[in-house]
Amino acid sequence: MALSLFGGFDPLEAWSSSLVPSRMQEMSRMGSTDIKETDTELVFKTDCAGLKSSDVKVQVVDGNCLSISGERQEEKKEDKDTWHRVERNYGSFQRYFRLPDTVDTDKVSARVEHGVLQVTVPKHDKPKTSAVDVKVH
Question: For residues 55 and 70, what is the distance between their CA atoms, to the nearest angstrom?
Fold first, then answer.
């Protein structure tokens, strides 16, 4: 069962891996992500072995969607080299996560350390609430 920040419904859980081509499944391992929630923040930890911080892009899109993407360039292969096996994945990955209304997207921080990208999204001190008085005629 997938962890859900959305009250029991996780829109990403509906995607079936059988719909994704096998090469894309291999690349998605590079962007495998764990999500932890504490009292004060959400923490996203994404595998990105072999990537530098300049190879990774983190964005908040449309105010409530966290986008994590990156690309590992294939090493140049010399004609004189004999490769017996090539198992590491190369290429790009992109992941999207819908954020709850309780987070402060203006204070998102990210860092890459030991092949793991950690994105920290702090929660609001107080949940955003608003009320609009509607004049009744």
Answer: 6
Query: Distance (Å, rounded) from C-alpha 3 to C-alpha 7?
Result: 10
Are the CB atoms for 30 and 89 separated by under 8 Å? yes
Q: Which residue in the block uniquely carries the two structure tokens 């859980």?
A: 13
Q: Which residue's structure tokens are 């790009």?
A: 92
Angstrom distance (rounded) from CA 5 to CA 123? 13
pTM for the whole thing? 0.69
DSSP string, 71-100: EEPPPP--TT---S---S--EEEEEEEEPP
Confidence of residue 57 (pLDDT cuts 50, 70, 90): very high
Closest C-alpha to 24, from 89, 70, 76:
89
pLDDT above 90: residue 16: no
CA distance 116 to 36: 14
